[in-house]
Prior knowledge:
By secondary structure, the chain is of the alpha/beta class.
Amino acid sequence: MKILVALKQVPDTESRIKVAADGRSLDPADVKWITSPYDEYALEEAIRIKEAKGAEVVALSVGTDAAKDVLKNALALGADTAVLLKGDGQGDAFAVAQMIAAYVKDKGFDLILCGNKGLGGDNAAMGPMLAELLGVAQANVVVKLELGDGTFSAERETDGGSELVVGALPAVITAQKGLNEPRYASLKGIMAAKKKTIEELDAAPAVAGAQVSALALPPERPAGRKLEGEPAAQAQALLQALKDEAKVF
């Protein structure tokens, strides 16, 4: 079995985000980059399949040289090889799907795994678009996956409960929290990853489905106000503020 895991590099949630001078992108200065947490579930599932059934796991990321850190981590965790498609990995989901589809074509992957969405953008569109471009089956927001002889059975979350999707391989599966518990890289894995080479390729030309016209941080919230005095006085002041200032009633 041959498995591709698509990984996206995203800003750490603890990083202080700034808008770049162009007003349409993030300023990368002082930003710590990590693997999108949802993609970590996809990678862990691929490694577990490899350990249980035997498989070749290829980690792939679209981006600049900075995305190599994501791929090195994947190699340390257990991926066999890694590929960097040099392109705009932070851009439009449709463009990224086209780049990955162009790479995947005719390479004989049985399964493609990725997170159900990239942290930050949260559009949840790349996986389904990739499946459509490749003309293969798909299951999204998956919390349980079982593979048979050329088939898959996936349990996915829905608003009202869960749904079972059964189909034939090849397929694109997008992972949701709960699918597994991602592991940490071992010292042995980290040392082994240093000896592996990341294949670098120019991403195929792609047409964006959407463009960012402007990007801005949310307005700062006004400072809070602390009510002083006895509890009864505080309650009366709060009631008066809700009535006169907030116009709640």
